[in-house]
Structures are given as C-alpha cells and as structure tokens.
Amino acid sequence: MGVPYVTVNVLEDDLLRNGMKEFSQWPTFPQVYIDGEFFGGADIMIQAYTSGELQETLEAALNG
Question: Where is the Glutaredoxin domain (predicted)?
Fold first, then answer.
C-alpha cells in the first residue's frame, strides 16, 4: 500500500514471542501494529483491506 513499515521476527526469541502474545492478547502471528497500536492478525488485515478500512487507517496514521 506504499507505506513505510518495519518487520520483527518474533519467532526467533521465545521471550519476545510470548511477551507479544500477552501484550496484544492475541495468540497468533503475524500481528500488525499501526501507529503503535495493535490492529489485528492476518484475518483482520484481509477483512480491513477488502472493506477499505485498512487504507483509511493507514492514511489517518500517516497524516495524524
């Protein structure tokens, strides 16, 4: 979608992986954060992309 992003491989570090699950209260990966807030996993991202919500959220984060 043409926005800057950073990836982190949490599967390489058990402490980080378990900490991310606890922090987000989401049990699976990938986990997507937008503007520092947990947005969702793959299923949520697909739904948000399809509905246009993802584009709106990204634009708001970039312009906010």
Answer: 2-38
pLDDT for 23-52, tens place per residue? Answer: 999 999 999 999 999 999 999 999 999 999
Torsion angle defined by CA atoms of residues 18, 21, 25 and 30, in that order, rounded to the nearest 10 degrees: -170
Which pLDDT value is given to residue 26?
93
State which amino acid sits at residue 60: A
Supply 44's token pair. Answer: 């949520």
Residues in the chain: 64
In angstroms, the CA 52 to CA 64 distance is 18
CATH topology of domain 10-63: Glutaredoxin (3.40.30)
